[in-house]
Amino acid sequence: MRVELFLARRYLRPKRNEVSIITLISIVGVMLGVAVLIVVLAVMTGFSGEMRNKMLQTQPHLHVSRDRYVITDTEKAEEAIRSAGGRAARMITAPVFIQRGDVFEPQGVLGIEFDRFREEMDFRDAIVAHLRPDAPFELLPGEIIISSTLAKKLDLRLGSRVQVHSTVQLADMVNISSSGKISVKDAKEVSLPAEFTVAALCHFGKYDFDSQIIFMDLNDAADLFRLPWNCASEVAGWLNDPAKAADAAKQLRAALPGYDITTWEERNQLLISVLNTEKQMMFFLLVFIVLVAAFSISNNLITSVYQKTREIGLLKALGATNGQMMRVFVFQGLLVGMIGTGAGVGLGTLVVTFRMAIMNALAKATGREIFPKSLYQFDELPAEIVGQDLMLIVLISVALCTVGGLIPAWRAAKLDPAKAFRDE
Amino acid sequence: MSKIILECKNIRKDFRIGSQTLTVLKDVNLVMPERSWLMLLGASGSGKTTLLNILGTLERPDSGELNFDGRPYSEFNQVALRNREIGFVFQSYHLLPELTVLENIMLPAYLGKNFSCKARALSLAERVGLKDRLAHRPGELSGGECQRAAIARALINSPRLLLADEPTGNLDAATGDGIMKLLAELHGDKSIPLSIIMITHNPDLAKLGDASCELVDGQLRKR
Known about the structure:
A: 424 residues, 6-stranded mixed beta barrel
């Protein structure tokens, strides 16, 4: 192997201090392919991870509900969640309309037990401002928490009063006959909207959640939707390890027959599978860039074999075996692959590390927002380089480049030395 | 009686060009004693290089018998035979431009997996007068120096047969004389049991060998 490696290295660097331009082009091709693979997969992984984190920050790991019914005996469901190793809290979810002057905004209400939800949903970090800054925030009856996004949209500030129309109240005011005719149920009974004070502004960094959800006390929500106090539309559960939600759900289904048990993964199944499939597809498609780079190596080495016909003939005349000649060119592919892959890993890592600076510079140069927050729901481009992905990229790239050297290597090995001299 | 290092019997070689067959060698017979120096003459296209290639295992004859050191060529590993027992010197030197003089000299030894050949390479380089040019690359040498390096390379594995195809063909008269003097010195060295077959067009140079033959109509004729 020593002489083959020695010759391969010399062929890649024909002059004392210079790498040949052909070698350089091959290396750059592999480097770009690997860098693109690393950057795209890192962003895909980061995006999936960030989506997962946001899902877990804004959603319970387990949901216990009853189809069409509220849960009045919540203690049973809470106890079942605790038995499955989780932490439980009651909540009421329902749609409302927020009225601010003449403006109506459809929103979802999360009626929560704030003491329990505070830690689970990480309200400490999410609350950006509140009415009582000298003390830790507590959600009191008659108060709501809205996102800073919604506040900006409706021109609301801390202490602002907003009217909240419950859809249950609205539904109670009208009668829809079997023929579809709509009439007022009782003109004398008009439900007025409930009034709440904006006590805190929050920002979870998940655009759809921030712009669509308002939080209020569980019993305020019960009043708003005409439910008995201490009931819940759902009992939420959190686990130390969200990945074990499926196991816990299995336990709950056995303990709570007649209840609907869903996990955060089931509720986001489509999104999770889309993200996973998207990453796999991107990997598959982007490997073609490395494949093209490997073809480029093959092409350059074939050219090299033709250019070096006389030298190959000479080496065989001097006693080089077919195997040795083959290895000289396979090693060239391997060396170009290793150097290109190494450079690609470096470049890819740099781009991932400085992605925001690069994006800001691009945005400045083009005058366009490269990563619109409203579209992607994140404050910054998420990215995470996973060791397993990196290893796979490195292995595939080096293997493809080595295979790229096989055709020219085979041609070199088969070269007839006498013919090589005659054709000179 | 000296030992026979090389023997050819009825060697024939045809080349097919399209539908035509060109017979280059027919019925070539040669017996070469060890330590002899045979000069091979002949017109261009007479088949001298083809014969040298066949003797050096670079080409196979279509028929005939070839023996090296009393054994048929077929009994040898052809690659090992040309790496260890046969040295080549070409008219165009054929040094690898990517390697230094020293690396070029050591190359056949490296190919034969002998990595402790540096001392011999240095000694050969000194002998051919390239001691001060070891780190230079072929592009930085004169034609005569390149040929000296090629001769040192041919001798690195201590071959018993040296095949030289017009080694002075690309050199001026004075440099060519120097190369011939070097070959004569090496051939005359009793410590090296070297036999030489050399192709030349120069009848004066042919006189330097122990014997000379001419290839005419595909057959060897003694001169």
